[in-house]
Amino acid sequence: MDQLKSTINDILVDTRYAGPLAIVKAARNGAVYGAKIRFPHALVMVFLFRSGTVRDKIRLVLRATRQHARNLALYAGLYKLTLYVLRSTRPSQKELAPDTFVAGLLGGYIVFGRGGTRQSNVNQQVTIYVFARVVLALAKLIIRNYLFRDRYRQQRHAQAEFYGMGDSAWTGKRMPPVDAWPLFASLSWAFVMYLFRWYPETLQPSLRSSMKYIYTNADQWDSLRNFLWHNQ
To answer: Which of 120, 230, 135 has the alpha carbon at shortest distance from 188?
Structure first.
């Protein structure tokens, strides 16, 4: 048994296997994280807002947890696999800047963009969550690189040096927090209102229904009853 453990440890620390092992580890991390984050969320939402027997609710919780864990594991594994393949095709074995974009694009399409489960609630929640974070990140980039480029250039360089120094202490001032939320919220609501007005069919049915209740029905009444007490 000790010999087996020693052999496994030797393989794990061998740099020749670093690429393939990273794929396995990424898939493992995706599965664990997906299960940890989905199980409590599904447990609360299903038992509070879903009807049915306890057995049916448990089945729904386990199904959502399994799908979330499986999808994150598959995506993480494909992402790392694509990076590994791209690096392996080059004599330098180095990663290039577009590699992460290509890997994310391929993994996102295979796991979340196609197949029979692409329209599942779990996949939509994860993708929308990621999209929101991407838009917020882009808003920060716009503020830093275009609106206040000169102000943040030196501080960004100092921060990059700080993170590249490992355990060394950074004595400079930290970059002040950027409040990109106004830009993020403004653009998000501007786009959703435009789409609801001119291309409502492109919006998710539940979102379209709620926006109709709030905005379209606000223009319709014929008495105090459906003006103040009721919407229709």
So the answer is: 135
Q: Is 64 exposed, middle or buried (0-12, 13-18, 19+ CB in 10 A)?
A: buried
Prediction pTM value: 0.68
CA distance 81 to 118: 21
- Distance from C-alpha of 83 to C-alpha of 72, rounded to nearest angstrom: 17
Question: For residue 80, what are the contacts with CB-CB under 8 A and spacing of at least 6?
Answer: 22, 23, 26, 27, 103
Q: Give CA–CA dist 24/84, Å, rounded.
A: 12
For residues 109 and 79, the answer to whether their CB atoms sit within 8 Å is no
Evaluate the CA torsion angle 76, 81, 82, 83 in order and state its sign.
Answer: positive
Helix (H, G, I), strand (E, B) or coil at 44: helix
d(CA 65, CA 44): 12
Tell me the per-residue pLDDT of 161-172, one tens digit each, with 9 for 90 and over.
Answer: 555 544 444 445
Q: What is the token pair recorded at 104?
A: 């994310």
Q: Scanning the structure block, which residue is given the tokens 């440890």?
A: 9
